[in-house]
Amino acid sequence: MINQSFAKDIASCSNPTGKVYYPELELINKNDSDWDDDKILNGITKLIKLNDE
Questions:
Q1: Most buried of the four, 5, 14, 31, 41, by CB within 10 Å?
Q2: What is the pTM of this model?
Q3: Taxonomically, which superkingdom (predicted)?
């Protein structure tokens, strides 16, 4: 667990969207391997600074 009393928010994004790549691996065949749209519903992604370093 991070002690957020010393953390400073640098960036915050609600419901982020972007691209995801699915490489051909054991569970993903060559036909399903490709780029696709992706999103995190009801989520928040934050970049925080924990100290002055």
A1: 14
A2: 0.50
A3: Bacteria
